[in-house]
Amino acid sequence: MNQSVFLYNPAIKEMISKWKYRGDYCLGDIFKESFVQTFKTAFGNEINDSIVVPIPLSDERLLERGFNQSAMLADYLQVEKKEILTRIHGEKQSKKTRIERISARNPFSLNAVVSNKVILIDDIYTTGATLRHAATLLQEAGCPKVSSFTLIRG
Amino acid sequence: MNELTPFDPHSELTLALRYSGKLLLRKEIPLDHATFQQLLNQQQFIPHASIIRKFSGPKCNRCNNQKRSLFGIIPCQICRKQHLYCRKCIEMGRVLECESLYSWQGSKPDWLSHANPCSWIGELTKRQKLASERIVEAVTNLEKELLIWAVCGAGKTEMLYAGITSALKKGKRVCLATPRADVVRELLPRFRQAFSSVHIQGLYGGSKDNDGTAQLILATTHQLLRFQAAFDLMIIDEVDAFPFHADPSLPYATSRAKNETSTTIYLTATPRKMHRKRIARNNLAHIFVPVRFHGHPLPVPTMKMSLNLRKSIQRFLPPNHFFTWLKNRRTPSRQLLLFVPTINLAERMGEKLIEKLLISEDITSELDLVTVHASDVNREEKVMQFRNKEILILITTTILERGVTFPSVDVAVIDAGHEVFDEAALVQISGRAGRSIDDPDGEVVFFHDGKTDAMVKAIRSIKSMNRRGGFK
Question: In chain B, what are the domain boundaries?
């Protein structure tokens, strides 16, 4: 169950690439208000017994970028954030085809058990492969409910 | 470079060639960690602070940005601290406060002294020759600066060849910097033909061949942010152009990219006030080339006042006078270049004009009229089509005011009184007409609803250049 704030279009694409790939950290704040508002509308009644879990970057990618855009988005929300996922370094999702993404092996591992409902946070939902991998792990570990919330639906 | 040495990416020679005269971020230096550390320990690479905080505020040592508003704060996951990064030059790769900039202090590369680098075969006109010889003189005598004031269509590229040749003969390194990537792409094949034995690279955002190891480099001005004390001859094309004069980091980058004893040649058809003042005070050497290469005068614009211009523009149409003029052009076979002040107007007017001109049978198909502007992804393609005469009418913003040549066009400016059309822009726009030896004339019309200083001065300046060229 995924919900998003914006649909992907050329203008958003440009902003995201400047923010994420060029590393213009401040640009994230442009999305803050809409992100928080839409989140409240989408998860209003579940916020109290949920935690948010941002999709992690691999250590290599984090050193390259200097910040994790998903964690930045998660920080905007007035909900407890737990960074319990880690990611094995691999190819960038954005460089893969649809088939490659869906058939890739799970790049995540879980380093804590959670009993709360989880809302996964990421910047872009394209094929949903990334979020499904993360959700599978959480469900197998006994998480009662996993949803996801992204800034953009590609 | 000696052709016989096997290529070793870590040889002294290769490193010197690749890194000498640069100022780079670690991620712009494609060496593995161990090699890089070793070179750092041997002090072949020297680290420099990338962002310094002075009493007056922060300063980026790559682009000289000192505006507080153009620095961002990032909770950095690399060094686990909150610190600054520069937003002004972020398009060239992000400068973080916790990372250094590196310059090469190892051995210097030996640039070839070419015996006979110039393979251009062609004749210069008398006027071009004078300028060409003056440039050679400046290069030979290590003069600091020289401004070439050459009218639109004077053939300035060819005037440069002799000066570049004499620099290459002495084993000097040469850079031609221009504000636009279009121009780099247009000049690169011409230079490769004119200097067929010389290693030449074109650098612009997204260029493939971008390690900057060539002796002769054509680059957009932004690319010079990666250079430091590299060039003996620096040629600055369109020195009056946006964004060069509007962005202080560009003159900064250009002057840092020069060696201590270097010659700088400025090229312009419309010198700005600063340069005119320096010329008048005799503290900037210059030479004026008042005649186009084909020996014909510059087309002088006419002004057409339309009191209903505002109303027409609100309906995204040119004024009625424009349609009258279109019907009565002296040479109806010429293509038409139509300048409008804004992107929005260009797009909307494009749609409306297609409808209207199809009805009046001025065009036969909707493909005859095309709109182009700066944020248009198909810009290059459309310009090519217009150049190949596959399009009759091209509506454009000031993006095409300079640096592009269409052989045979009439030019109209809609709302010429708009503030984007300053004097230099109007002179450049008028300079798009009559560029070809086969059709050395063209009509230029300013449609307006009230004369501006810029219009009057542009026309006065064109007339005065013609007078100086010996035309009545």
Answer: 14-104, 126-289, 302-469
SS (HEC) of chain A = CEEEEEECCHHHHHHHHHHHHCCCHHHHHHHHHHHHHHHHHHHHHHHHHEEEEECCCCHHHHHHHCCCHHHHHHHHCCCCECCCEEECCCCCHHHCCHHHHHHCCCCEEECCCCCCEEEEEEEEECCCHHHHHHHHHHHHCCCCCEEEEEEEEC
CATH code linked to domain B126-289? 3.40.50.300
- Cross-chain residue pair A66–B90, CB shorter than 8 Å: no
- Are B398 and B425 within 8 A, CB to CB? yes
Give the global pTM: 0.88
- Determine the Cα–Cα distance for residues B439 and B229; give it in Å rounded to an integer: 45
CATH 3.40.50.300 at B302-469, yes or no: yes
Residues ≥6 apart with Cβ < 8 Å to B101: B23, B24, B25, B47, B48, B49, B50, B61, B62, B95
Q: How far is A63 from chain B (nearest CA, A)?
A: 5
Interface of A with B in 13-72 (CB under 8 A): 18, 22-26, 62-68
Express each pLDDT in B326-361 by its tens digit.
999 999 999 999 999 999 999 999 999 999 999 998
